[in-house]
Amino acid sequence: MESESESAVTRIDTTKPHPARRYDYWLGGKDNFPADRESADIVAEAFPSIRLAAMENRNFLRRAVTALASEMGIRQFLDIGAGLPTAGNVHEIAQDIVPESRIVYVDNDPIVLAHARDLLDSGPEGATAYIDADLREPERIRTHPDLLATLDLTKPVALILVAVLHFITDDDQPYALVRQLCEALPSGSYLVMTHATGDYLTPEDLAEAIERDRRSGIPFQLRSAAEFAEFFTGLDLVPPEISSVIDWRPGVWRAHPRAEAVSMLGAVARIP
């Protein structure tokens, strides 16, 4: 009988770019195809530091998960738009701090499903699960049997939406999607989010970036800090609140790029 991962391989369309595979390419991975690399290179023509932005986004994720596990008492994580497995997956970070941490990953790319075994390598004290679903299906995600078997929704959960909401255009009602997911979580949960922005770009560079995104074959929408802040309406932002991902709790001093070289906003907020 064909396994779920084998079935996923047959569903992979290598002729169309996908955000997870394009991101994998920027991070130096090998699970991408010519269409993904062509799309990624089109974006890089307008934004040459895109690979650096992808790396800094992952660094933010590591710092945020570390803070949630070590300082805020979070033991459960729901990572939507998880992408292809790479160094420093959420369960690796969280379980290194709290071995009993439980993580559910969600993505809609069949190639991520095919590699899901690498996301299911949980330590014996904790647990991980993978759901093949789209962020645009919040009800399916929050009622999925695998989620309910892994996470206890009566206890706080960190909802992670890192580098995914800029692929949800206004036509798909992104604010409503995030609100529905947050409403499914109890008080004391957290929302973790990063989002591409044009705030740091000149008008000319912004126009060029928008045109390149249009040509890349993947729907994409930059949002300002004010638009990004709307996702956190009614939530309690954790200091330093909304900032460039490079400035969110950077920890020890290190040489880091200018905010405009990354053009990514990040924030963590508590659900009251």
What are the secondary-structure elements, in order, as H or E?
HHHHEHEHEHHEHEHHEEHE
Quaternary state reads: single chain
What is the CATH class designation?
Alpha Beta
At CATH level 3, the topology is Rossmann fold
Output mean pLDDT: 87
Q: What share of residues are in beta strands? A: 5-15%
CATH architecture descriptor name: 3-Layer(aba) Sandwich
How many domains? The number is 1
Q: Give the C-alpha Rg.
A: 18 Å
The biggest beta sheet is recorded as:
8 strands, mixed
**Residue runs with pLDDT of under 50 for 5 or more positions:** 1-8
Overall structural class, as computed from helix and strand content, comes to: alpha/beta
> Care to count the β-strands?
8
Q: What's the helix count?
A: 12
Q: Which descriptor suits the 3D outline?
A: globular
Task: State the helical fraction.
Answer: 25-40%
Assigned CATH superfamily: Vaccinia Virus protein VP39
Distance between the first and last residues' Cα: 46 Å
Task: Give a topology summary.
Layout: H1 4-10, H2 19-26, H3 34-46, H4 50-70, E1 76-80, H5 90-97, E2 102-107, H6 110-114, E3 127-132, H7 138-142, H8 145-150, E4 158-162, H9 174-183, E5 190-196, H10 203-215, H11 225-229, E6 236-237, E7 243-244, H12 259-262, E8 264-270
Parallel strand pairs: 1-2, 1-4, 2-3, 4-5
Antiparallel strand pairs: 5-8, 6-8, 7-8
